[in-house]
Amino acid sequence: MSIEYKRVLVTGTAGFIGFHLARRLSEDGLEVVGIDNLNPYYDVGLKKARLEELDGYRNFSFSKMDLSDQKGLEQLFGDNQFEVVVNLAAQAGVRYSLENPHAYVNSNLAGFVNILECCRHHKVKHLVFASSSSVYGANTKMPFSVHHNVDHPVSLYAATKKANELMAHVYSHLYGLCCTGLRFFTVYGPWGRPDMALFLFTQAILENKPIQVFNHGKMRRDFTYIDDIIEGVVRVMGHLPAPNPNWSGNKPDPGTSYVPYKIYNIGNNNPVELNTFIETIENALGRQAKKKFLDLQPGDVVATYADVDDLMQDAGFKPQTPIETGIKRFVSWFKEYYGHS
Predict the structure, then answer these.
(1) b vs e for 153-186, b when ≥16 Cβ sit within 10 Å of the residue's Cβ?
(2) Which phi and psi angles does 140 have, rounded to 5°?
(3) Residue 341 pLDDT more than 80?
(4) Phi first, then psi: what are they for 123, rounded to 5°?
C-alpha cells in the first residue's frame, strides 16, 4: 500500500539525519516543515549551519520548538495538514545516557507521546519514527532481525527507543494510526555528529592527537552511509504498513502486528571491524592515527549486523555504499567545512 504526500513534518531537522532528509524531500518538491530545539548536546554552530543550507529551499520552513512544548506542537499541527510525520528528534548517544538520563526521558519518552497525540488528533496518515540498532542490546544471534525479541537493552538510550516502538504500537492498536519504526545502524557521512567515531577520529588524526579505540578495536559495526539511510526513509514514508494477516498472539512476531504497524532495519548488512574502519580513515587522510586502546565501555555492544530482508521485500532497497566511498566523502566535507588542507 502506497501513499501520495505533499506536506511533511520532519522533527530534528537541525540534526544529522533530519537535515539530510529535509534537504532530500525539499529537492523532491515536497512542502517540508522542520522543527528542532537546537539543544547544546553538541556544537550548536554545526546545527545552525545545517539549517542555513536548508534556508535556500522555498518549500522548506523551520520553527525552533521542543517536543515537550505540547501547546506549540498542537498549534503547528493545527496550522498544517501533515500527511506524513517523520520523528527524528531525540536525545541521542549511548554513552551520554549514563551521564544525563533525564534528558532521554524528557525528549525520547515525553516528547514522543506529544508527537503521537498530535498525529492521532490531526489525522496524520503515516508516522515514521527513528528507533535504533541499540535496541538489540544483549542479543548475540546475527544478523539482527526485526523478528527477534529485543527485551534486553543495555543502555537507557536503547530502552527509550524500545519504548518508542511499544508506544507507537499502542496508538496503532487503539486509534489505527499507521506507524513505522526504523532501526538505524551506525549512520555516518558528511555533516555527521561530532560525538560519533568517524568525526572524532578524523579530527584527532588531523590534529595529531591520539584516538580512543574501545574494546581494542575488536568491535564490529554495520556502518551505514547517510544517503542510504535517507533513501530507505523516503521509500518507507510512501509505504503504509498493513496488518499482518498471519500474526498470532500464540507466537507473536515482534516486527509486524495485527494492526498497521511495522519495524524495519536500515543497515549496510556488512559489519566492519573498528580497526578496519580506522585504517580506512587513515587511508582517506593519508595519515596514521595514534591509538590508545581501551576496554569496552558500559552500555556498548560488541557487534551490530542488520538483516534487511524486510526492507528489501517491502521497499525494494538495500543500503550498499562501501565504507571506502562513504569515508572519502566525509573526509572531503570535513576538510572543507573546518578549513583543513
Answers:
(1) bbbbbbbbbbbbbebbbebbeeeebbbbbbbbbb
(2) -120, -10
(3) no
(4) 55, 40
Counting residues of the chain whose pLDDT is more than 70, the rounded percentage is 99
Q: Label residue 206 exposed, middle or buried (CB < 10 Å: 0-12, 13-18, 19+).
A: middle
Residues annotated catalytic, as ranges: 157
Residue 231 has pLDDT above 80, yes or no: yes
What pLDDT, in 10s, does the model give residues 167-214? Answer: 999 999 999 999 999 999 999 999 999 999 999 999 999 999 999 999
Mean per-residue pLDDT over the chain, rounded: 94
Cell numbers for 233: 526513509
Contacts of 85 by beta carbon, 8 Å cutoff, 6+ apart: 8, 9, 11, 115, 118, 119, 124, 126, 127, 128
The pLDDT confidence band at residue 297, using thresholds 50, 70 and 90, is confident
What do you get for the CA distance between the two ends of the chain, in Å?
A: 49
Question: Mind listing the pLDDT tens digit for each residue in 121-131?
Answer: 999 999 999 99
